[in-house]
Design goal:
Layout (H helix, E strand, L loop, with lengths): L8 E8 L2 E7 L7 H13 L4 E8 L5 H16 L3 E5 L3 H10 L1 H4 L2 E2 L2 H8 L16
Parallel strand pairs: 2-3, 3-4, 4-5
Antiparallel strand pairs: 1-2
Length: 134
């Protein structure tokens, strides 16, 4: 079995009980997508509803990575939950924009901004925004 040329590193932290932050480093492509999928499936299995995907250290992503992001987005919406992409590299952002994924899946500049979206806040994380129910 060949050794992966571009290994993927995924670190999972839990900013909140139902929120998983996955910090991804390396190429997110056909060779590494299954590993990424396993990390997401594990978090779904453990009851996480909101997924923050930090792609700031992903220099390249192909359709395999995008498909997994869209799949977890669909699964999270049914919970109901959410998926947020955080600070993608310029190359990854370009792919997200060209394919329209960035229209469907929110893109944030920081974990704090993404958590504010999870909370239903419209402003930046530092802005005081009252939560309105109903």
């Amino acid at each position: 079995m060949p050794i992966a040329q571009n290994p993927l590193s995924v670190e999972v932290t839990l900013p909140r009980q139902d929120v998983a932050l996955l910090t991804v480093e390396g190429y997110l492509d056909v060779d590494t997508a299954t590993e990424f999928q396993h990390h997401l499936a594990n978090q779904l299995h453990h009851g996480r509803r909101h997924f923050l995907l930090d792609l700031s250290a992903v220099p390249f992503m192909d359709s395999s990575g995008m498909n997994i992001i869209l799949r977890v987005y669909q699964e999270a919406r049914e919970l109901p939950g959410s998926v947020h992409i955080i600070k993608p590299t310029p190359a990854v952002r370009r792919i997200l924009d060209l394919t329209g994924v960035s229209i469907t899946v929110p893109v944030s500049e920081s974990v704090e901004d993404a958590l504010a979206l999870v909370d239903g806040q419209g402003g930046a994380a530092g802005d005081p925004v009252e939560r309105q129910d109903g």
